[in-house]
Design a protein that fits this description.
Blueprint: E1 14-17, E2 22-25, H1 34-47, H2 60-67, H3 71-83, E3 87-89, E4 95-97, H4 130-138, H5 162-174, H6 190-204, E5 213-216, H7 219-230, E6 236-241, H8 245-253, E7 257-264, E8 267-268, H9 270-276, E9 282-285, H10 299-312, E10 315-319, E11 344-349, E12 361-364
Parallel strand pairs: 6-7, 6-9, 9-10, 10-11
Antiparallel strand pairs: 1-2, 3-4, 5-12, 7-8, 11-12
Helix pairs in contact: 1-3, 2-3, 7-8
The structure holds pyridoxal-5'-phosphate.
Pyridoxal-5'-phosphate is lined by residues 153, 218-220, 244, 286, 291, 319, 321, 349, 351, 356, 361.
Length: 378
């Protein structure tokens, strides 16, 4: 590193250094030399973990070009970092962030930090909302990155036709027009919604137009959105017992009162549900392939469920998460297709038919009108 430090360079605006993905604010201020401000911001990035131990800092020539500075200025900042123990030069191989920092005691490494919600102390206002506390209690981890034997809910990643997918992706990106690169409508890309509606009409007999389809990042987000728009805290929701944990999380986070309803050989037991809670606001079912028991809801049970929902004004969420898969024959049409009262919200996902990592799902709304919401009478 050269020894000379360049100071007082007349410098510019705010930058994000693209090669290094580090943002710097080098607006002129109290007359501090530019190299010192660059040094201070790099040091802060190192101490806060934005740049990790062992990371190679951008080459001084590259960073200087990106920030519009002289190379000497960058070298001076690096030299000071090295002198103070935050970085070290490896011969001609570049400058690296030190693995042990002078402040290590003051800034515990990431793994030593806790995810615990800060102590709220007696009488102090809670940091998290009631909903946030519910969510925090559920944890953020979940899902398995690689399939394990007999796992029920992930496709076979090793047989995904990756080559064809890559080819199709490349072909479609070549056709992208600039006006397709901006923000999409909140409900999703209209042509995609139209194709999904066509497909669901053809394969699941769904009563839905493209404008009824709302794209999400998967069933979990669909459930979360539905819980937020349909449920008020304390309202009763029938959930299948045993059932899908993701549903319980979404509805509990919305403050709903979960009513577990047993599943028998014909699917969710409406009779038992009615005994446990006669006035549910919402009923959640997986009729094509009950999760996790695998039962298909019988036609008689479907009719009973829809009649009950209609009689008490309940809404139904149908999670059709994997009806694309069957050993033989065809599956029954979706419950939503039998629903003439507009009470069923249909959830679809591409997590099984494509890949969970794509994060793609949708829900189809029904246009609810007052006509569909009679006064409950049970
Ligand atoms: C019952 C059920 N619904 C939905 C899903 C898929 O959820 P997502 O679309 O969020 O991946 C799963 C995944 O295992 C599931 O078991």
């Amino acid at each position: 590193m050269p020894e000379q430090l360049s100071c007082g360079e007349a410098v510019p605006r705010q930058y994000a250094a693209s090669g290094s993905l580090l943002a710097f604010n080098l607006e002129p201020d109290s007359g501090q030399p530019v190299y010192a401000r660059l040094y201070a911001q790099l040091r802060e990035a190192i101490l806060t973990g934005r740049v990790e131990a062992g990371t190679r800092l951008p080459a001084s020539r590259v960073l200087a070009a990106e920030l519009g500075l002289s190379r000497n200025t960058v070298v001076a900042a690096y030299t000071r970092l090295a002198d103070e123990g935050y970085a070290h030069a490896r011969g001609g191989a570049g400058v690296y962030v030190a693995s042990v920092l002078p402040e290590d005691a003051a800034f515990p490494p990431l793994e030593a930090r806790t995810d615990a919600v800060p102590d709220e102390g007696a009488g102090a206002p809670p940091v998290l909302s009631a909903r946030g506390r519910q969510l925090a209690a559920m944890g953020l981890e979940g899902g398995s990155a690689s399939p394990v034997p007999f796992v029920a809910d992930v496709p076979a990643f090793d047989v995904f036709p990756l080559d064809s997918w890559v080819r199709l992706m490349a072909r479609s990106w070549r056709q992208v027009q600039p006006d397709m690169l901006g923000y999409a409508p909140a409900a999703g890309h209209a042509p995609l919604r139209e194709v999904i509606a066509q497909n669901l009409r053809a394969t699941r007999f769904l009563r839905a137009a493209g404008s009824d389809v709302i794209m999400t990042s998967g069933s979990q987000q669909s459930l979360d959105l539905l819980a937020r728009v349909l449920l008020d805290p304390g309202e009763a929701v029938w959930v299948e017992e045993p059932g899908y944990g993701g549903t319980r999380s979404a509805f509990s986070a919305a403050g709903a009162r979960l009513v577990p309803v047993p599943v028998d050989a014909e699917g969710l037991s409406v009779e038992e549900g009615r005994r446990r809670e006669p006035l549910p606001k919402l009923i959640f079912v997986t009729p094509s392939h009950q999760y996790p028991l695998g039962v298909t809801m019988s036609m008689a049970r479907r009719v009973e469920l829809l009649a009950f929902a209609q009689s008490c004004g309940a809404l139904v969420v149908e999670d059709d998460y994997d009806s694309e898969f069957r050993y033989a024959g065809t599956t029954l049409p979706a419950l939503q297709s039998m629903d003439s009262a507009g009470r069923v919200f249909y959830l679809g996902t591409f997590s099984k038919s494509l890949l969970p990592r794509f994060g793609l799902g949708c829900w189809c709304r029904h246009r609810l009108t007052r006509r569909h919401l009679p006064t409950p009478k049970v």
